[in-house]
Amino acid sequence: MIKVAMRIAYYGGEFFGFQRQKDKITICGVLEEVFRSVGIFDVCMGSGRTDKGVHASAQVISVSIPEFHRDLQRLKQLLNVKLYPWIKIKQIWQVENEFHVRFSVKRRGYCYVLSQKYSPFLALFSHFYPLKNPFLVQESLDIFRGVYDFSAFMKNGGSGCEGSVREIFHTKLLKRGEFYLISFWGNGFLRSQIRLMVGFLLEIDRGNLGIEDLKKQLLGEKIFSIPAPPNGLFLSRVDY
Question: Is 110 annotated as a binding residue?
């Protein structure tokens, strides 16, 4: 057997999240069904889970494949024919047996897309919200940087891993044409953490909350806990 990693992209709107669930269509479930059709029977593991409706442009998975699939370029082409149109394998490479697709990650990047233009053709991949005060949003974003217990920015049900302390290395608000991109880089994120942070930022932009409220919630006082919609969120990068 050969252990490989695959970098994949997917449209999350067609799935009930990444993780396999009984009687639900999930990314992992579809991948394993397609893998079985070409003689790959190993369990699929991902670098992290994405919630229902959340997209990815650079999720990473690992799986062990039989020796007869040693031609990785041909395997990628074969799988992409079967995965079209909602999932695409962008890259396959061989890894050491010690490689762990989740615990070997050094940092993860997420991007939330805010559309400044109302259009039904953009709604699947962005959240329509005309930003009023980008400078205030960037100032608020800067406060997330550092090591915090993010339990007040976590959806009930936990994160699937121990603890709620995470480190955010970098945050940025970028303007690109008709879109604002809110990016977060960290060593890991809790369940719905990004969407809850974005939801808080938008309340600050609306004038309903302030920076002091944000600081209080980072210290554990739950003030606002309505997440931004999932359609604007992308898992955009995973580094090892």
Answer: yes
Q: How far apart are CA 44 and CA 28, in angstroms?
A: 7
Residue corresponding to tokens 């999930």: 26
209-230: per-residue pLDDT in tens?
A: 999 999 999 999 999 999 999 9
**pTM higher than 0.85 for the full model?**
yes
Is the bond preceding 85 in cis, omega lying within 30 degrees of 0?
A: yes
Determine the residue type at 131: L
All domains of the chain in start order, with CATH: 2-94 (3.30.70.580), 107-239 (3.30.70.660)
Query: So which residues are the catalytic ones?
Result: 51
Please give the structure tokens belonging to residue 118. 């109302």
Query: Which residues, 6+ apart, have CB-to-CB distance to 175 below 8 Å?
Result: 134, 181
Task: Judge whether 56 and 50 are in contact, CB under 8 Å.
Answer: yes
Q: What CA–CA distance (Å, rounded) separates 26 from 30?
A: 6
User: If you ran DSSP here, which 8-state letter would residue 203 be given?
Assistant: H
